[in-house]
Amino acid sequence: MGKIILTGDRPTGKLHLGHYVGSLRQRVELQNSGLFEKIFIMIADAQALTDNADNPEKVRQNIIEVALDYLSCGIDPTKSTIFIQSMVPELTELAFYYMNLVTVARLERNPTVKTEIVMREFGKSIPVGFYTYPISQASDITAFRATTVPAGADQEPMIEQTREIVHKFNSIYGETLVEPEIMLPQNAACLRLPGTDGKAKMSKSLGNCIYLSDTPEDLRKKVMSMYTDPNHLRVEDPGSVEGNCVFTYLDAFSRTEHFAEYLPEYACLDELKEHYKRGGLGDVKCKKFLYAVLQEMLEPIRARRHEYEQDIEGVYEILKKGCDVARAEAAETLDMVRRAMKINYFEDAELIRQQSEAYKSSK
Ligand code: TRP
Asked: What is the CATH number of domain 4-192+312-352?
């Protein structure tokens, strides 16, 4: 059986560099590798609503932003199906059945959800939908019989939860669902890109993001004010590259060719790091190099975004077609699930006949 990808993002904002290195870049490579039979990329609006119920307008606006980000990064709608989660209502029905296979105690242990609850300051007022979104995510994945979920490390607990649901379902109702695997980014710096302020994660709510759609001027300002080594006060001082986000970003984005082009005094990143550690290399020089590297990468993405922005109707057309394809696929899985659970009441003619016989003969 061919390999199938399902992955996605919540439309709560434009996508940023963390998304790019954490998964977008890899998705494009996987898409173009030809190794996958089907690729589904979902804009998870229903999941976004689990903590934005009071602001559906924000979610609606960001669906198009995320779609533009996908297309401009090189997701090709002739190779990958891009769709909107809530337009595939089969996903909700699947989640409803999966809910019976998961305990409240198990949901409580999900480390990603725990962190999010603290970050959102929910206290005791956690929306039920939010609390159960890992179950809904299991539906997203299994509905497409996905084998592979390219995603960031923060999604690991969701895939784990999905695998448990698959096991439980298959052991109760018979082999039906496919067990997925997560595919993490290969480069360690990409596992969790820090924010420009050096905080552990690039995140809209922390205001420390570089967006794929930032202008060159925004980008320059953000790079030039990035967090480095607070003890590296004078150029002559030895500096630390650990926890210095300019170097973390260079780990994630720079290639040897960039040195020949923008910083020929150094052959490679290791040489640059050595000089920084020794002392005598200023932050500004490193930041200018990083700006050049990011600018080179982001410029074509920005240009493609600009083109798609001129044809928003066309983008909606792409999404609509994607939703149709996704819906047909999810409906097939839902049929299999109902059959396995024997809740396909009107389809099982044999069962109806047996019941009917039983009633007649009991008279
Ligand atoms: N939880 C993901 C995020 O926060 C979005 C998502 C929803 C997802 N369903 C998914 C990712 C299924 C991978 C697979 O961005």
From this structure: 3.40.50.620
Q: What is the pLDDT of residues 216-226, one digit of tens each?
A: 999 999 999 99
Ligand 1: which of 5, 7, 113 to mutate, judged by most atoms within 8 Å of the beta carbon?
A: 7
Tokens of 120: 């959102």
Name the DSSP letter for residue 193.
P
Instruction: Output the CA 176–ligand 1 centroid distance in Å.
Output: 22
Ligand 1 centroid – CA 10 distance (Å)? 7
Take atom 8 of ligand 1 and give the residue whose Cα is closest.
8
The alpha carbon of 328 and the centre of ligand 1 are apart by a number of angstroms equal to 20
pLDDT (mean) for 37-43: 98
Homologous superfamily of the 216-308 domain (CATH):
Tyrosyl-Transfer RNA Synthetase (1.10.240.10)
Question: Ligand 1: which residue has its CA nearest to atom 5?
Answer: 9
Mutate to test the pocket of ligand 1, among 23, 40, 47, 98 (most ligand atoms within 8 A of CB): 47
Distances (CA, A) of 57 to 13, 22, 45, 95, 283: 12, 27, 11, 24, 41
Percent of the chain residues topping a pLDDT of 90: 86
Q: What is the mean pLDDT of residues 133-150?
A: 97
Would residue 145 be called left, alpha or beta, if left means φ above 0 and alpha means ψ between -120 and 50 degrees? left
Each residue's pLDDT tens digit, 53-86: 999 999 999 999 999 999 999 999 999 999 999 9
| Unique residue bearing structure tokens 């337009």 | 87
